[in-house]
UniProtKB/TrEMBL annotation:
PANTHER family reported for this sequence: MERCURIC REDUCTASE
Named cofactor requirement(s): FAD
UniProt keywords, alphabetically: Disulfide bond, FAD, Flavoprotein, NADP, Oxidoreductase, Redox-active center
Pyridine nucleotide-disulphide oxidoreductase dimerisation domain ranges (all copies): 341-448
Organism: Arthrobacter vasquezii
Name of this chain's protein: NAD(P)/FAD-dependent oxidoreductase
Domain FAD/NAD(P)-binding residues, every copy: 3-320
Recorded superkingdom: Bacteria
Length: 461
């Protein structure tokens, strides 16, 4: 065999897998057909976060006069914004220093497109390579809906290729991606229509979180149409405007927009991988794995978006490391997915960790839930960011934290702090005694924990 471990894909999962495998002494290679870093750095989280900062800046500039700062009406320079995003991506890639790290660990980088030719052999643009174990970290791609005129829509990764900021945008899909894009375009001044087949946006979040984000969108004039019957098609008019037609809650609807963005799902990048030559099975657009991240072929592991389990960078890194340890040392390790904090940079932000209220009530209807509104805490009042709440879900004895969910400024950082407490096994009474610096957003955690200890309920918002 040429290598002990061959990692296919150099995104967060692949880099974590290769690093861990090499640290454990395995002869390791990584195959990548494009830039190192994967979707997250190059066209996903990093660009989105720069755009989210832009949206925040724009909002702040608009309110600057309230604080006695005289500014002129701001306007967006789309080309400058795109330059800024691209420069930031390059800076993040530099900081990550993938090349140097790979050199230090003696990881071989194989540039090209990988495709299995047998269970242990892969062809990389025609060049054969063999490995004892293969870790597939091939990620996913946005789904293009099979509807008439689909070619007129852009995918989230192509948003930066729009020649100018559209005056209006229709976004199909209100998952994390669609919700974040809705915030960005709304903040920059585009008229936004957000459509989803599901009865609510952000379906994986706590119900109150998705309601609050929806209310926030609608209060700023974003059209949110959920529970739609489907998108019928997109037509391009002679003047370049697009017409999108859908079966809305109130019957057939249409809108004339400058751009349509499809954020309607994220299947794994499995086509062209030659999985049949290795006997690797797929299901519902992903490669299913067991608890040890093994596909149905025991020496082929799958980490990150490609296994369809949890399509988050923070999960991908854990999975990459775990798959590498299992490939090199034997399959004994699993990943603790229940403690993955996640969230999105909408306006207001949202985030969560652990069980949602609905999941907890399904297990025990008597579980306790407390909610503290942002408007009752000093820092959000000082910053004029009173919209939002922190919800703490505990067991019925109010001892164990089962989950935490927040909407509001810095919600992701707030939830991260609760996640650290949960990971350390902190009980509610201990959390209630933690001293939080004043005046901070995270002090809301102390309020919630004390409220839980006092026995107050969700009704006393
Ligand atoms: N901040 C974050 O953590 C973040 C950001 C972006 C993406 N992600 C992850 O990446 C993955 C992909 O995210 P995503 O938002 O692109 O996809 P998604 O699958 O999470 O959401 C897609 C949404 O599109 C809707 N939809 C599907 N078909 C539709 C149709 N024909 N018409 C209207 N609506 C339709 C679905 O109901 C769903 O709400 C997810 O797992 C997500 O968790 C995370």
């Amino acid at each position: 065999m040429d290598f002990d471990v061959l990692v296919i894909g150099a995104g967060p999962a692949g880099m974590a897998a290769a690093t861990r495998a090499a640290e454990l002494g395995a002869r390791t290679a990584v195959v990548e057909r494009a830039r190192l870093g994967g979707t997250c750095v190059n066209s996903g989280c990093v660009p989105t976060r720069v755009l989210a900062k832009t949206a925040r800046l724009y909002r702040e500039v608009r309110t600057a006069r309230d604080y006695g700062i005289v500014v002129h009406e701001p306007a967006v320079d789309w080309q400058q914004l795109i330059r800024r995003v691209r420069t930031t991506v390059d800076r993040v890639l530099d900081a990550k220093g993938y090349g140097e790290a790979m050199q230090q660990l003696d990881i071989t980088l194989l540039k090209g497109e990988a495709s299995f030719t047998s269970p242990h052999e892969v062809s990389i643009d025609g060049r054969p390579v063999s490995a004892a174990s293969v870790i597939l970290c091939v990620g996913g791609s946005a789904r293009r809906l099979p509807i008439p005129g689909t070619e007129h829509a852009v995918l989230p990764s192509d948003v930066l290729d729009l020649p100018e900021l559209p005056d209006s945008v229709a976004i199909i899909g209100g998952g994390h991606t669609g919700a974040q894009l809705a915030t960005i375009f709304d903040a920059l001044g585009s008229r936004v229509t957000l459509l989803d087949l599901a009865p609510r946006i952000l379906t994986t979040e706590d119900h109150d979180v998705s309601t609050a984000v929806t209310d926030g969108f609608r209060s700023r004039g974003v059209t949110v149409d959920v529970g739609i019957g489907g998108v019928d098609g997109i037509k391009k008019h002679d003047d370049g405007a697009l017409e999108i037609r859908w079966q809305g809650t109130g019957g057939a609807q249409s809108a004339r927009v400058g751009a349509v963005i499809m954020a309607a799902g994220w299947p794994a990048n499995i086509s062209g991988l030659g999985l049949e030559a290795a006997g690797v099975a797929t299901a519902r657009g992903a490669i299913p794995v067991d608890n040890y991240l093994r596909s149905n072929v025991p020496h082929v592991f799958v980490a990150g978006d490609a296994n369809g389990t949890s399509m988050l960078v923070q999960a991908a890194v854990f999975e990459g490391e775990t798959a590498a340890e299992n490939a090199v040392l034997g399959a004994h390790r699993t990943t603790p997915h229940h403690l993955l904090p996640e969230g999105g940079f909408t306006d207001p932000d949202y985030a969560g960790v652990g069980l949602t209220e609905a999941m907890a009530r399904e297990r025990d209807a008597q579980c306790a839930v407390v909610v503290v509104p942002y408007g009752s805490v000093e820092r959000p009042i000082i910053d004029d960011r009173e919209q939002g709440f922190l919800k703490l879900v505990t067991d019925r004895h109010r001892e164990l934290i089962l989950g935490a969910h927040a909407v509001g400024e810095n919600a992701v950082e707030v939830i991260q702090a609760v996640a650290s407490a949960m990971a350390a096994g902190t009980d509610v009474a201990t959390l209630a005694r933690v001293k939080f610096a004043y005046p901070t957003y995270s002090s809301i955690i102390g309020h919630a924990a004390r409220k839980a200890v006092r026995g107050a309920g969700k009704d006393s918002w």
